[in-house]
Specification:
The chain is an alpha/beta fold. The protein has 2 domains: 5-59, DNA polymerase, domain 1 (Orthogonal Bundle), CATH 1.10.150; 67-329, Aldolase class I (TIM Barrel), CATH 3.20.20. The chain has 11 helices and 12 strands. A 10-stranded mixed β-sheet has the order 1-2-3-4-7-8-9-10-11-12. A two-stranded antiparallel ribbon has the order 5-6. α10 runs parallel beside α11 (302-315). It binds iron/sulfur cluster.
């Protein structure tokens, strides 16, 4: 099988070309064509030698995963489904924001073995860790679909899957997306969200991207119930890892906190959350739960959400309430799944 072009970082592409007897500088030319000019047809890459051009389609696959559908929410959020072959598919979500902000939420896995209780993806066992190319392709395909005057401004790894369960592909995709010869995205506009795979968190620091932590519990008892990963890496270790990130980068951490009625939304828990995070430069995103079938949880009332948020504000926390986007098309936070569209093949943890 031919290697997928979109999985190569620039250094890896240079090395690969040298190994097959081609000139190293061709890698830079290819990056400029494919990512800078969005041209994937070798015949149009006019500054390449004719022999190399003629051979390119034998060396690489330039095929992008097919976009199976685009669903548009009443609030302008768009959800895309991509075909990965082998009866597997993956979703991405494009979220409009204020001031021209356009955030693409990408997936890193089909399904997820971490089984967070509030998450629809977590109900679907891990079927595939995406390649770097399959992550880059989500951005590429969506960019191609946008009108000339619109650009994706931010990327968040908050779609299907735990990014730190698939680190090589995730950080290679970030290298590709931020390469100055191509899409040239800023690392500070990319956020990697983790449920707390602590040994891998220094990779986020090293990558220069922003860190978001899916917290969703203010003490070990509740967090372990909602997020089984907490039994392996409890809250005190998680907070220490966040502190290391902020010490090294001087950036804030974003803590995501899903409000589940009667489980994570009490005023006592608002206090615990404040005390847990107060020494770490951070902001807290509270996310009223987005329902999905058989979750067993429900969304608190707007009044209860206000009360929780106001208590945190009163205590002095930097807290934002995540505006629910795309709920009508199952594109909101925690609602992504391709369980109905993917094969039953499962991968071990
Ligand atoms: S919240 Fe993230 S880590 Fe947890 S099950 Fe869902 S996709 Fe996996």
């Amino acid at each position: 099988m031919k290697p997928d072009f979109y999985s190569f970082t620039l250094p890896k592409l240079e090395q690969f070309l040298e190994e097959i007897g081609e000139k190293k500088f061709r890698a830079r030319q290819l990056f400029k064509w494919v990512y800078g000019h969005k041209i994937t047809n070798p015949e149009l890459m006019t500054n390449l030698s004719k022999d190399f051009r003629d051979n390119l389609n034998n060396i690489f696959s330039f095929e992008l995963p097919e976009m199976l559908f685009e669903k548009i929410s009443v609030d302008g959020t768009r959800k895309y489904l991509f075909d990965l072959g082998d009866n597997l598919s993956v979703e991405s979500v494009l979220i409009p924001g204020s001031g021209g902000r356009l955030t693409l939420c990408v997936s890193s896995e089909v399904g997820c073995n971490l089984a967070c209780k509030f998450c629809y993806t977590g109900k679907q066992k891990l079927k595939k860790r995406l390649s770097a190319g399959e992550i880059v392709a989500q951005y590429y395909q969506v960019s191609l679909k946008l009108p000339e005057d619109l650009k994706v401004t931010n990327i968040v790894f908050m779609g299907m899957g735990e990014p730190l369960d698939n680190p090589t592909a995730v950080f290679d995709s970030i290298d590709i997306l931020t390469d100055s010869l191509g899409f040239c995205l800023s690392r500070k506009k990319i956020t990697v969200s983790t449920s707390g795979i602590i040994p891998m968190m220094p990779l986020i620091t090293k990558s220069g991207t922003r860190l978001a932590v899916s917290l969703n519990g203010s003490n070990d008892k509740v967090r372990s119930e909602v997020m089984p990963i907490n039994k392996k890496w409890p809250i005190d270790q998680l907070m220490a890892a966040c502190q290391e990130y902020t010490d090294a980068t001087r950036d804030k951490v974003t803590f995501e906190y899903v409000l589940l009625k009667g489980v994570t939304d009490s005023i006592e828990q608002a206090h615990e959350l404040y005390h847990l995070t107060k020494r770490i430069p951070c902001k807290i995103n509270i996310i009223p739960f987005n329902e999905h079938p058989n979750s067993g949880y429900s969304r608190p009332t707007d009044k209860a959400v206000d009360k929780f948020q106001n208590e945190l504000i009163r205590l002095g926390a930097h807290v934002l309430r995540r505006k629910t986007m795309g709920r009508d098309i199952y594109a909101a936070c925690g609602q992504l799944t391709t369980a109905q569209k993917s094969s039953n093949k499962e991968l071990p943890v």
